[in-house]
Amino acid sequence: MGDRPISTNDMNNTDSPSQHTLNNQTFAEIASNTTLPKMNQAIVFNSINNIKQIEYVSAISKIVPAKNIIFVSRISNNRFCVFFNSQTVMENLLKTHSSIHVNGIDIPIRRLINTSKRIILSNVYPTIPNQLILNALHQQGIKTTSQITHMKAGFATEQFSHILSFRRQIYINQDSATKLPNSITVTVENTTFRIFITDDIVTCFQCHQTGHFSSQCKNIPDPINATNETETVTESLIDLSP
Description:
- The protein is α+β, with helices and mostly antiparallel strands.
- It folds into two domains: 35-111, 2-Layer Sandwich (Alpha-Beta Plaits); 116-216, RRM (RNA recognition motif) domain (Alpha-Beta Plaits).
- The chain is 27% helix and 27% strand.
- The strands form two sheets. Strands 2-3-1-5-4 form a five-stranded antiparallel beta sheet. The protein has a five-stranded antiparallel beta sheet with strand order 7-8-6-10-9, with helices on one face.
- Strand 9 (183-188) and strand 10 form a beta hairpin.
- The protein is globular, with a radius of gyration of 28 Å.
- 11% of the residues are buried.
């Protein structure tokens, strides 16, 4: 009997040894051969209630090509973490953008690993010199790692985008964070000013919880329910009176 001719199907179904090995690799084996990212390739920012993961990713992809985003997840303390495929991508993002814009909200972004901590100085009148603030911080034992810079008021209109707010920012050593007071005072031309100190975590002024703005707070009691509760208590008191 002669050899059977090799058909096209036979040729398509013939696997090379390397293909056979690849097809039989387990996920664990493939993952073990994958180059894992480093912590210095990631950014982190505060997670806002009711904003989906895809909305964060979509906002970042408008700045960084989507192919450079490799891992994302919500993490502890109401934060969202994004890993890029290189440290260079992450560094370039932070050089050009200090925040991302999601659903009309500007969310500050920062390195996941940072030896310095950013603090916000509020109620700082424009007439107060930066050096006086630095002196006050140093007197508290705070080690600063940057100069003080002004923060914009945040107007979206180009006509007013140059206007600055009464807030400034500075980076301090992480070890100094526990020494931070809630406020400091400085005196300029016989007038004493109180400057408030906070970090860059979004805190609701209604319920004092982190992760959302007061305008998005769902922890405010419903006025109607509050009224009903008051009426119920009043009726109970009347019923119990002699």
